[in-house]
Amino acid sequence: MRWLTALLLLLLGAGLAGCGEAERAKPPPRAWDEDALGYYCNMVVVEHRGPKAQIFLSRREDPFWFTSVRDGIAFSRAKDEPGRIRAFYVNDMGSTDWNRPSDRSWIDAETAWYVIGSRRRGGMGMPEAVPFADRGKAEAFARTYGGRIVTFEEIPDDYIFSSGAPTG
Length: 168
Description:
The chain is α+β, with helices and mostly antiparallel strands. It contains 4 helices and 7 strands.
């Protein structure tokens, strides 16, 4: 009888571990549709120029959408969010058009290269953290539009949370 109890406990533990893994598994990026609304502005995402972001939280099936990468980064840095984020994707602007970014150009936000302080404005007309999968393409963008190249971790909080003046 003890072996049966032990077996049941083992199976129950394995089942719970599997649930935890599924909950933490990184979902793939989603394609947006005309109903995708920006988390902060409640405006239709596809109606805005420049790169977009999507963030998946634990215990939530659908992503939160952002009309700008800057808004997505702000959300990720809010004190209650980082531990709950399962996946954070941004448009690779080295592989898509600024005016109509493709919903097939998603890359992991944490591994992207960013150009900050450029003359290009994001979805809400604010300074943008422009993401690239390829550093060479980020360098070419910075030569054309100004700005400097940083990693996700190097993006200054004051750039993300400022009222609009680029910090270079």
